[in-house]
UniProtKB/TrEMBL annotation:
One of its GO terms (cellular component) is cytoplasm. Gene3D superfamilies: NAD(P)-binding Rossmann-like Domain. GO terms for molecular function: aldehyde dehydrogenase (NAD+) activity. It comes from Pseudomyxococcus hansupus. Residues 6-225 form the NAD-dependent epimerase/dehydratase domain. InterPro entries: Epimerase_deHydtase, NAD(P)-bd_dom_sf, NAD(P)-dependent_oxidoreduct. This is Nucleoside-diphosphate-sugar epimerase. Pfam families: Epimerase.
Length: 325
């Protein structure tokens, strides 16, 4: 097996993929901007090779990709910098091809689908994003698929819904977990009673490693659904119940989100994606299951139990969580 590099390794999904590789006894390279954060996260793992990059410097990107067989692309950007996604993907793709990288696995989102036209969305659903963020994500995918079609590199794209799990702060559910653990009131982005799905982050890593090792995985994209259709309300009430406290929460509607957005750059960008709360994308991942066989999906109740167990007492975060970008 050749070298695997995780570009954007310090995020929640990157850590899950690294854990899966570690469990398989495979060496891997972690790539990020900060040596310090990479050392804190991966420095104790003898299987991890630490490499830093400057995403604005093509030579730096090439150095990070040198000697790599499979590049897993997990790079995130703040909501207010989404215009940079295609540019960064283009530079990374060019560097990977120049260095002879054989395969790229891109961890993507539901944004390119746009508003769902069916109750359940499979990979044949049109990609017609109606938001700027969706168009930027689709541009990334088009760059990759064109390179695959040209024979320059093999590409597989894995779409994830919103996610949660131990230590995962970049989740709509993080604040309810913290608040419930302290018996305090949580703020939720509404509406909270529409169908939704979440993937448990520790389940993602094994799926990614299985996908990247499957010869038939390349040249297309795949959906990975959550552990079933639920609602934010049902999950939050279970979070509080398992924490041993009555559920207490405030639901922020679009008007309040816009008001907070006057002072918070993330919340300012959120109204564009509000459709995901009213007409959420629920994904059909039967194609992925046909490819890989059994896919581990931790039931929500167990995922909540494990997330609460890993949560050490800490003040409720003052920032705002964000979904898979």
């Amino acid at each position: 097996m050749g070298t695997v590099a995780l570009f954007g390794a310090s995020g929640a999904i990157g850590r899950s993929v690294a854990q899966a590789l570690r469990g398989q006894g495979r060496a891997y390279r972690v790539v990020g901007r900060s040596t310090g954060s990479l050392q804190r996260e991966f420095g104790a793992d003898p299987q991890a090779e630490i490499a830093t990059w400057n995403p604005e410097d093509p030579d730096s990107i090439r150095a990070a990709a040198r000697g790599v067989q499979t590049l897993v692309y997990l790079v995130g950007l703040p909501y207010w910098q989404f215009r940079l996604h295609p540019q960064l993907m283009k530079r990374t793709l060019d560097a990977a091809i120049a260095e002879g990288v054989e395969r790229i696995v891109f961890i993507a989102s539901v944004y390119p689908y746009g508003r769902p036209r069916t109750d359940i969305v499979n990979e044949s659903h049109p990609r017609v994003p109606h938001t700027f963020k969706g168009r930027m994500r689709k541009e990334q995918e088009e760059l990759l698929l064109a390179a695959d079609k040209a024979g320059s590199i093999q590409v597989s794209i894995l779409r994830l819904p919103d996610f949660y799990g131990p230590g995962v702060e970049s989740s709509f559910l993080h604040r309810p977990f913290v608040a419930a653990s302290q018996g305090k009131r949580a703020q939720l982005i509404g509406p909270i009673d529409t169908p939704h799905e979440f993937v448990y982050v520790p389940d993602v890593g094994p799926t990614v490693t299985a996908l990247m090792d499957a010869p038939d995985a390349y040249g297309r994209f795949w959906n990975l659904g959550g552990a079933g259709v639920t609602t934010q309300k049902a999950l939050v009430e279970d979070i509080y119940a398992q924490a041993g406290h009555p559920a207490k929460y405030t639901v922020l509607g679009p008007g309040m989100v816009r008001l907070i957005g006057l002072f918070n750059p993330f919340m300012r960008e959120l109204p564009e994606m509000h459709y995901l709360h009213t007409t959420p994308v629920i994904m059909d991942d039967s194609a992925l299951r046909s490819l890989l066989g059994d896919i581990r999906k931790t039931p929500y109740r167990e995922g909540i139990r494990q997330t609460l167990a890993a949560l050490s007492p800490a003040p409720v975060a003052t920032g705002h969580p964000h979904p898979v970008p």
